[in-house]
Amino acid sequence: MITTKTREKTPFFTRKRLLKYFWGSILAGIGSVIFIFFLASLGVFGEMPDFESLENPETNLATEIISADGKILGKFYFNDNRTAVTYKELPEHLVNALIATEDERFEKHSGIDGRGTLRAFVFLGKRGGASTITQQLAKLLFHREGSKKVSKRYVQKIKEWIIAIRLERQYTKKEILTMYFNQYDFGNNADGIRSAARIYFGKEPKNLKIEEGATLVGMFKNSSLYNPRTNPQGVTNRRNVVLAQMEKNHYLTTKEKDSLQQLPLVLNFNPEGHNEGIATYFREHLRSFMKDWTEKNPKPDGSKYDIYSDGLKIYTTIDSRLQSIAEEAVQKHMKNLQKAFFNENNPKKNKNFPFVNLSQEEVNRIMERAIKNSDRWYHLKQLGRSEKEIRASFEEKVPMQVFSWKGTIDTIMTPMDSIRYYKAFLRAATLSMEPQTGHIKAWVGGIDYRNFKYDQVAQGARQVGSAFKPFVYTAAIDQLHYTPCDQLPDVKTCIEANKYGNGKEWCPHNTDGKFSGRMMTLKAALANSINSITANLMDKVGPVPVVKLVKKLGVTAEIPELPSIALGSADISLLEMVGAYGVFANDGIYVKPIIVTRIEDRNGRVLFEYTPETHDVVSEDVARTVINLMEGVTQSGSGVRLRTKGADSYNAVYKNVITGYPYAFTNAIAGKTGTSQNQSDGWFMGMVPNLVTGVWVGAEDRAVHFRGLQLGQGATMALPIWGYYMKKGYENKDLGISKDAFAKPKGENYSLNCQGNDPVESSGGDSEVIIDF
Fold first, then answer.
1. pLDDT at 126
2. Cys-Cys crosslink for 60: which of 117, 187, 309, 583, Cβ 3.0 to 4.6 Å?
């Protein structure tokens, strides 16, 4: 009998099989993750940083402009206004705030926070994300751009994890924290913690208070949303969250946290744009200097240094304290002087305002030139617009913001009207130099860089008027051995036609058109700026030696070898005038003015150190004699108002407009005023033993000027800026501005003893006029 045995069917999901599948799935998942990470590390999902990139992440660093007294004057950058700090420069509370808020287990993980990642998966991010500080740094350094596609976001997260792990292997925790602080963009051109601390609070990171540090750390969440200027309440709330996190992590006590949370948000906003801050005109001139330097000084590999991203450090000669005083002096005086100008010259009194004594045809020529030199004309030309269309655009009213001494004005006007509006503003420039070294200490190229970018220090060359006369006197003293006590007659002096190739007889007049006929000492003649005696000296010396002397004084401007240059008909820049006058204060030795002493790369390696350029011009005795002559200008000549206390006799004319001259200097001052034809330019060149400072005031167009000498002379337009600048400078003893007497000449042929000779008289003005032939 055949029996059939029934076989029992084995269940598919046995315990053993389930365990096998479970662990197989786990291992497969882990393997898949490892494989995906492996592929990502190979760059399959996109480029990954190699070892060298991790060792030296590409970070754009702004070039710092550093003053002689160690202050940051400004920076050169395009997109990244970043200056790196070291970990030692970060206050402990700032580091604690970041860790407490962004990554509580920062010290315990190796780039990825496993607990935080698991929490983020389980709660779908509702209880906080999982990005560590190291991951956030990886994102900032190597792939800033996010993606809206979910798949790409996952790939980016995987790449962040890989980079974060590599960063943790490559760097210490302190280095990672420092890199993160240096890399983050805090908005408002505040790239990195140092820029943020300076821009929002006006201080270095190490000086931040706890609540200030918490404010900046709060911005790490979203600097666009939590912007202290546009969302102060949101930033305050976010700051308080940071302070609460610091208490939670035992960095603050509850009492400290509660106290700090009650504080208001207090900013000290200091924008670091190219139009803001101090020494704006100087920084623009420095940019040109650096462009030339980078062309001539390549890197070891032959490439050029980039001043916008290579993180150079430029050590300049500017003293930030003197620079601030100089800018304040210009602002204070020019605001009042402009008011005086508008009182005298306005559309109601002058149909051709602001131009004085011009025909309509001449005005049209000036405006036509201004139109074709404007940015609007250039840009519309670039866009291919026809000339007819461009000209029509200048007559269409448009909303615009315009400069005024009371602040920016929102208005509607035509571009043509705006050109005329801006031409009505008087400009000013001030330059201060240490004559023994050539170091430029203060550089103010205009009244407002944002609206008037033309630099009158280096770019602008203008008629110097009687400020040129000391050069004529120097040539006479050097060649003919005149002394301050020698006398010449104040009589009409004519230089015959063709004697020096001028083609016609030259007979300059004094300001009032009169000649006293008296004998005058050279000291009195220069103090009162007597044209007849200057012409007499020019006739005795000749224009050729004077021009040669001026060239040795560092003036590169083209100066015709004609007698009329004696009264300042030549156009010379303020920079060259200050350099030339520095020779007198430096015992006859010319030192080329300099603005940079040293340049370093981002690692502190010295790339450039300045070597002084000097040469002898005149003897020590000649230089000291000329100084003595120019002391007469401030003792009883056109610069005597520097000695007065309170308002002087002219103040009745300037009532409520010009504030008098309350300087009351008693120390030695040598100087010279200058006024060009039609009062288009006002100058004052002033010296003490260790500081030479020049001031120029005028308008963009020479046809815009005061009508008379009372307001239009250099003693009124320019001298007050010098006086205010020096008075404030002397108040700061740390600046070391000299009050000593000038050294006297030693030679017997250079006697300063004028006893019994004609006393110095004051005309109360520049006593000058320029006659063009």
1. 46
2. 309
Could you tell me if residue 91 is inside a domain? yes
Question: Apex CA 402: angle with CA 396 and CA 405, to 5°?
Answer: 150
Assess whether pLDDT exceeds 60 at residue 49: no
Q: Return the top range by mean pLDDT from 458-462, 493-497, 761-765.
A: 458-462
Rounded CA-CA distance 464/684 in Å is 10
Does residue 714 belong to any structural domain of this protein? no
Same structural domain for residues 216 and 353? no
- What's the pTM? 0.84
Q: What is the DSSP letter of 710?
A: H
Residues 257 and 391 both lie in one domain: no
Q: What is the DSSP letter of 205?
A: G
Residue 86 shares a structural domain with residue 205: yes
Is residue 566 one of the residues assigned to a domain? no
At residue 657, the pLDDT reads 44
Residue range 619-626: mean pLDDT, rounded: 96
142 lies in the same domain as 259: yes
Could you tell me how many helices (H) and strands (E) the chain has, helices first?
Answer: 26, 18
If one counts every other C-beta atom within 10 angstroms of the C-beta of residue 612, the result is 11
**How would you classify the pairing of strands 63-66 and 313-316?**
parallel
Q: Residue 178: inside a domain, yes or no?
A: yes
Q: What is the mean pLDDT of residues 503-511?
A: 84
- Give the residue from 397, 423, 449 where a domain finishes: 423
Q: How many domains does the chain have?
A: 2
Per-residue model confidence as pLDDT tens digits over 698-749:
999 999 999 998 899 999 999 999 999 999 999 999 999 999 999 999 877 7
In 16-100, DSSP assigns E strands to: 63-66, 72-76
Quick check: 673 and 729 in contact, CB under 8 A? no
Judged by DSSP in three states, 275 sits in coil
* Mean pLDDT computed over 558-572: 93
Q: Please tell me whether residues 94 and 201 are part of one structural domain.
A: yes
Residue 646 to residue 640: CA distance in whole angstroms:
13
Same domain? 246 vs 358:
no
Last residue of a domain, one of 423, 454, 485: 423
Segments forming the whole domain that contains residue 355: 346-423
Read out DSSP for 369-421? HHHHTSHHHHHHHHTT--HHHHHHHTTS-EEEEE--TT--EEEEE-HHHHHHH
% the chain with pLDDT above 90: 69
Q: Judging by beta carbons within 10 Å of its beta carbon (0-12, 13-18, 19+), is residue 324 exposed, middle or buried?
A: middle
